[in-house]
Structures are given as structure tokens and as C-alpha cells.
Amino acid sequence: MTAKNILILAGDGIGPEVMTQVKRIIDWMNGKGLTNFVVSEGLVGGCSYDAHGTPLTDETMQRAMDADAVLLGAVGGPKWDNLDFSLKPERGLLRLRKDMELFANLRPALVFDALAEASSLKLELVKGLDIMIVRELTGGVYFGQPRGIETLPNGERRGINTQVYTTSEIIRVAEVAFDLARKRGSKVHSVEKANVMESGLLWREEVQKLRDAKYQDVHLEHMYADNCAMQLVRTPRQFDVIVTDNLFGDLLSDCAAMLTGSLGMLPSASLGGDLGGGKRRALYEPVHGSAPDIAGQNKANPLACILSYSMMLRYSFGLLKEADLLDQAAQNVLNAGIRTGDIMAAGCTPVGTDGMGDAILAELTKLHG
Ligand SMILES: NC(=O)c1ccc[n+]([C@@H]2O[C@H](COP(=O)([O-])OP(=O)(O)OC[C@H]3O[C@@H](n4cnc5c(N)ncnc54)[C@H](O)[C@@H]3O)[C@@H](O)[C@H]2O)c1
């Protein structure tokens, strides 16, 4: 196995705490010969501002561009809240996403059996839920021109944002969704508002054309975004892969995430274009933030970060067996009733961040030897 370079940017708050547990797992997998990862670390967010006066240095940015995959913890915290907009910790994260051209954001909404009771929906609706939302991340109304706030001749003010998509932007993110569907349940729901938006109509037409040309084995359905929001809380198990634009994806992925219980359980991946030889830029990170309210107290749930690492194994390196092994270990630990505070339930065993890491490692050893 050739060595792969992983850049770890643990960030602020609970970022370094949860990342410590991931590094233990990386060491364990390297030690067992399951992976051959060379890990280097860098600063992003508030800690980078403190050290270098910027939330991301050019040097760290270049290392991210050169890495085979980047794993990020979380950024931000009250200490840096009053900085100028351009220096805020989040700008480091946004620059990583932008310069790496990460146009496809993958947000799984997966309900672990042991946690199904924690969902806001009834158990029978969410048990076994496994949805993958693919959100377009670099286009659409968050970036479209013209934008701004202007004053009209009559003194009234007008705010403008532009929803805009080109065929190539639609096709590249739809390809990611169809490729994923082929490895899952072979079903894609493409979500827009083609009834009231031309950009939505173009989205619908291009996704259909792509499916007919290249992905006839995948079942495709089109759905309006408002209906999708309703269906997600009505019968969420009808979905396999959902592909949608930046704005609708922002809302729908958060909605789907909450079907699954805690923020501390949610991983994500952001993928860039194919660089040839099966390589693509990729950033993996938990959905949660730096949780300043519990930082430094050994209370954070490391599973979102650990499951983000599992996504890295799966999507950057095709290490499916290793990813399955780690997912199974997490499942077994939860089934055994081991819980951090955010997912605690009656009769379960409370552990801290370290304790959850210990339990995952013990389970990996039990499953693999
Ligand atoms: N991707 C990122 O790095 C990212 C994302 C969101 C927010 N932020 C930043 O994080 C800071 C805090 O933001 P916030 O409080 O709105 O969101 P947050 O996700 O940090 O925390 C929200 C709540 O969830 C809890 N929580 C989050 N992750 C947890 C975990 N792994 N285990 C247990 N509990 C967990 C926190 O204790 C808190 O009560 C802000 O500076 C914000 O800008 C960063």
C-alpha cells in the first residue's frame, strides 16, 4: 500500500479533543497494516490567528492542496468573535473550501438503532434511516452576481441575490450523487423549484439528461424542495440519495440531520473535482462547531469526527472494509450503552471524550484482532 498524506487541522474548542481520539484510531489502523497514512498537522481558525495573525496561512493552504485528504475538527469561539470579518476563524474554513474547489458536500443522515429513540420523529419512521444528502457547495444564490444592497431613487432600499447555475456546475454535482447511489440503494431524488425558478428548470433538465445518458441503472425522481422538506419528516425512509443546490441543501441537510438525534454524531465530507488517477481534493469534518460551552472538559462526543474519518477511508481511499469496520465498532459501542453526555439515556454508561475513544479502540481490537 503506497503511503497517503493526511493533513489534520484540529482547530479550536473541542476540535483538538475529538481529533485526539481520531489520531488514536489512525495509529491503531496504521499499526495493524490496514492503512499507510502519514499524518501531518496544521493550524486553522482562532488558533492560527493567535499564532500567525490569520485564520489560515498560505503555507497551510498549500499543504491542504497537496494532501491526499484533509481532516478538520472545528473552528471558532467567543475569544475571536469581535475580530474583523476577514480575520474571523470561519474565514479559514471558507478559504479551504473555496481554494480546494469543494463543490459537493456529503451529509449522511444515518440513524443508529441504539439512538433511534432520541429522534424527534416516531421510532417506526426513523429506525434504519440512511439518507445521503449531496449539496452543491460553491454556486447558486450564495455566490451569484449581482448581489448587494442598493438605494433606489425613491429612497427605498433593495437587497439583491442571484440564483445562478451553469450546466457544468449541475452535472458535476449530479455525477457525485449518481456515483454514490450506485454504491447504495440506486435511487436519486433531485430537488429544486422548477415550478417557479428557471435555474431549477435547468437543474431538472440537466440531471434528467445526465441520468439518461450515463446512469440508466439508477432510479431518478424529481421533487420540489418544499415537498422534500415535508417528505423528510413524513416518510424519510423513502430517500436514498438527495441531490440539491446550495440553498435548499443548506436547509434540507440540517432538517435531515435532526432526524438522527445529536450534533455530536454527524459527519460530513466535501469533495472537489477529479484530478485524474482517481484522486480528488477532499475535506472531512464533523458538522458540529467548536462547542465552547464544553471545551476542555472531556465532555465532547468524538463520534462525529471519528465517523468523518470513516468517510475519508471510504470516499478518498476506497478502503470500504476498513470504513465498515470502524462504523461497526461505533454501532457496537452504542449498542453496549456507552454514551457521552449529549446522547446519554437512562440505564446507559456515561463516558467522557477519552472514554468513548477507549471504547471504540477496544471494540476495533475485538472485531479485528
Ligand atoms: N464547522 C465549524 O467549524 C463550525 C460549525 C458551526 C459553528 N462553529 C463555531 O463554533 C462556535 C460555537 O457555535 P455553536 O454553539 O453555535 O455550535 P456548536 O455546534 O459548537 O454547539 C452547539 C451545541 O451542541 C453541543 N455540541 C456540539 N458538538 C458536540 C459534541 N461533539 N459533543 C457534545 N456536544 C456537542 C455544544 O455543547 C452546544 O451546546 C462558534 O464560534 C461558531 O461560529 C464552527
From TrEMBL:
Enzyme class: oxidoreductase
Binding site for substrate: 97, 107, 135, 226
Entry's cofactor comment: Binds 1 Mg(2+) or Mn(2+) ion per subunit.
Reaction(s) this enzyme catalyzes, per UniProt: (2R,3S)-3-isopropylmalate + NAD(+) = 4-methyl-2-oxopentanoate + CO2 + NADH
Site (Important for catalysis): 142, 193
GO biological processes: L-leucine biosynthetic process
Subcellular location: Cytoplasm
Pathway assignment: Amino-acid biosynthesis; L-leucine biosynthesis; L-leucine from 3-methyl-2-oxobutanoate: step 3/4
Family: Belongs to the isocitrate and isopropylmalate dehydrogenases family. LeuB type 1 subfamily.
Molecular functions per Gene Ontology: 3-isopropylmalate dehydrogenase activity; magnesium ion binding; NAD binding
Claim: Metal-binding is one of the keywords in the record: yes
PANTHER family the UniProt entry points to: 3-ISOPROPYLMALATE DEHYDROGENASE (PTHR42979)
Top-rank taxon: Bacteria
EC numbers, comma separated: 1.1.1.85
Principal place of residence: cytoplasm
Cofactor: Mg(2+); Mn(2+)
Domain Isopropylmalate dehydrogenase-like: 5-360
Keyword annotations from UniProtKB, A to Z: Amino-acid biosynthesis, Branched-chain amino acid biosynthesis, Cytoplasm, Leucine biosynthesis, Magnesium, Manganese, Metal-binding, NAD, Oxidoreductase
Record InterPro entries: IsoCit/isopropylmalate_DH_CS, IsoPropMal-DH-like_dom, Isopropylmalate_DH
Gene3D superfamilies reported in the protein's UniProt record: Isopropylmalate Dehydrogenase (3.40.718.10)
Pfam family, one: Iso_dh
Organism name: Novispirillum itersonii
Protein name in UniProt: 3-isopropylmalate dehydrogenase
